[in-house]
Amino acid sequence: MIGRILRRSGVSASELARRLGIAEGQVGAWVRGDPPLSVVDSVARACSIDLAKVLAEPEPDPHDVGLLETTLAMTVDQRLERLKAYVRFVQAGRAALRNVP
């Protein structure tokens, strides 16, 4: 949650540490850990972020993000070939299901 607040606000860990008067290592521990809501609230305030909005945002699935990055790295032709292969896969699956006794 702390990492998401930092990314969304554009505030660095060192800047957050300075704003809160704490060691930068503590910010890193919060990013890697699961700090209490009171800490998350303090961080959001220090970053001028509305905590309610951050809590309401869905966390992106890393698998979905990876698929998106892979797809965006492809050319249009590569994407089209991938889509055609997927259609062939689905059609083969449907045909196989029709042949099941």
Helix and strand topology:
Blueprint (H helix, E strand, L loop, with lengths): L1 H8 L3 H8 L3 H9 L4 H10 L4 H6 L5 H12 L2 H23 L3
Helix pairs in contact: 2-3
The helix content is over 70%
The run of helices and strands is: HHHHHHH
Low-confidence stretches: none
Please identify the structural class as seen in this structure: mainly alpha
Question: What's the CATH first level of the largest domain?
Answer: Mainly Alpha
Quick check: average pLDDT?
A: 91
Tell me how many strands there are: 0
Strand content: under 5%
- Label the CATH architecture of the largest domain: Orthogonal Bundle
User: What is the 3D form?
Assistant: elongated
Rg (CA only): 22 Å
How many helices? The count is 7
Number of domains: 2
